[in-house]
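Support case: user asked for a sample of complex input and structure output to validate their parser. Sending the pair below.
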Amino acid sequence: MTRSSPSMAPAHLARATSIDVRRLLSLWVGIWLFGGRGNCGNPRWTPRCPDAVPLSTGVKRVRRLWRNRAFRLLTFIQWSSALAVVGLGAIPKGDLSRLSIKLPTLVISALTIGQDWALLVIPLAVLAGVSKLLRERLGAPWAWELVKDVLDSIRNLTFAGEPPHDPAEFHRATLFKRQRICFTKACLALRRWPWSGWLVSVERSGHFTLKRRVAFYAPDKAAIAHGVAGRTLACGNILPIINLPDPEDESQHEEYARRTFVTASWVKETGIRARSFFGIPVEVRGKPWGVIVIDSRDPCPPTVVEDINGHLELNDRGRTLFLAIAGVMSKVLTRIKPWAIG
Amino acid sequence: MGDWIGLDLGRLNRPWIERVGQVELSVLPSPFDVPEAVRFAVQRRAWWGHDRQVIEFAYIGNEPLREVRLSGGVEFLLGRFSGRLHQIAFDPEDVPAWARSSPVNALQFVASTIHSLVETSPRPRRSRNYQLAQEALQMQGDQVFSAFVG
């Protein structure tokens, strides 16, 4: 009985093997794109991720879900293209039949096909590079989820003394990212150029009030920076603003706007209800990255105390907490490129 | 290298009144500007160089550093982007004798050195950090400067 070569394998066996390989590949691609670790926005994967958020909790969640999928697709494209480039580049040039090593016919025919397609190396390399850039622009899903978890922890620890029945949106922590260019309605509303420097909300604690991105004008000229976020970035220190007037009372809008560095019309349009703010600057590798703004409907949050002279001071918990917040966030954000869109 | 000496963050995190726009506010220092710990160390150099006496500050963030040399043989390590004070290095031969006589004099000498940095710094925003570094040294002066004087 003679041993058959791979090229002499029965046709039905070869077909079955190729179908199995195709099935396995499609299954792997499917898991890679739509499931797996870190895809907590996808309710189909709740058994692996018990804290998964249902899709209906906000536009931003859905946006993040599609970004996660896009990130996985781009990762797949980047690695496949890179492997193909390496494979095509490693194929020996010239007449393969003259090689000193005896290769099976199937391998020789595969190498010959590879030689014919050798010019694909250039577009594949470009594709791998572009995919990598786009992935960095999106930011790794696990890093964004970590940012979200940190913001949730900040919110829970800062307002640990608040009544437990308070709705989540009464006390929030929002991360704003500094970016040079921003095209949002805020640019038109404030009549500022889109390229003059902005702080844009990229993540927020809880699962509510995420439908709208908030942008504050934050130019290099500190005196005209907009909002608590803008002023915090400009002065580079912690800005505690407490005991604000009730914004539900329209007669207080002017005073509220003056103390929070916005316009009275902005207060009316946004329907903001916060009575206290904390602006905490965030740096990454010594450069200003953005700002965390903690806002609450409580006029005097539990982390702050007022001394006899009326100066605000952080209590022990506040001090420790804000140091920890800044430190952890600074470390987490090193894994997100400055040009990521958030 | 010497051990890190922890600092009382409650005393360093003091608010001050600042006029922000049209509003007077109690402002607290940035968490990145507040030193968490300080230490004194003697930095051994290669056989051809002198040993240096170094005062270091630890912060919550990491950043690349740059060297700044002032007249009198003092060398500072500042944050490349932030200008934050991370290290002061002295050549023992350049430290005057009066500064070695007591920890109080040593503190005065280092404070004047930091003051000269404030005057030459192109970043006025970091003056708060330099002030906090001075306060940190005053706070733990006895422990830091006992080795410096000895």
